[in-house]
Design goal:
four-stranded antiparallel β-sheet, alpha+beta, Jelly Rolls
Length: 188
């Protein structure tokens, strides 16, 4: 029921609609380092994180750019690949052993067509994701590296123990050496 309460933060769906969605879910386990999606692959499933940490990123060959981290109770996918059923431009990898529930694109479309409440839920979750991305862009442009670090630590302190710091540094747009100094000297 934790997931039900999480969904209700976005839209107050009925328990009946919740079960309409969750009855379509299957479970899949991934090992640390295992890819969920790679560039060129179409994301055919939308994942609901039960456990573990995942990361989306792109690799220019010279540098890795971290885009997002996912963990319970959030959704996990390359959003544009899943939403538009187009090849991904990014990687989605498990940073830890992970257990994910998923629904296929076609099953989700069926559920959304059956329930206006589920459709509203996903619209509101998409809007929240977009707002979060805008907030991150503002943080990256308007905050000092120390402010970015502190904001991240307030939002996701557990990731400091689970995620290699070079990926968090990349996500925050901070040089790994400066990140290390912040980690060792700044109290949040």
């Amino acid at each position: 029921m934790e997931r039900y309460e999480f969904f209700r933060q976005f839209h107050d769906i009925s328990i009946t609609d919740y079960h309409l969605l969750t009855d379509c879910l299957s479970t899949r386990s991934f090992k640390k380092g295992e890819f969920i999606t790679v560039p060129g692959q179409i994301q055919r499933e939308l994942y609901f994180v039960k456990s573990g940490v995942q990361m989306s990123y792109f690799d220019t060959g010279d540098k890795i750019y971290t885009l997002a981290f996912t963990y319970f109770p959030f959704l996990c996918a390359i959003a544009e690949s899943f939403s538009f059923q187009v090849p991904s431009k990014y990687f989605l990898v498990c940073l830890t052993d992970s257990e994910l529930e998923y629904i296929t694109y076609n099953d989700l479309q069926t559920v959304v067509n059956q329930s206006q409440q589920i459709e509203r839920l996903f619209r509101r979750m998409t809007e929240a994701m977009l707002a979060g991305m805008i907030d991150l862009h503002i943080e990256l442009r308007a905050m000092t590296i120390e402010e970015r670090y502190k904001t991240f630590c307030r939002k996701s302190p557990h990731l400091l123990q689970l995620v290699p710091h070079k990926y968090i540094a990349s996500y925050l747009g901070i040089d790994p050496t400066n990140f290390s100094k912040l980690f060792n000297n700044v109290i949040f």
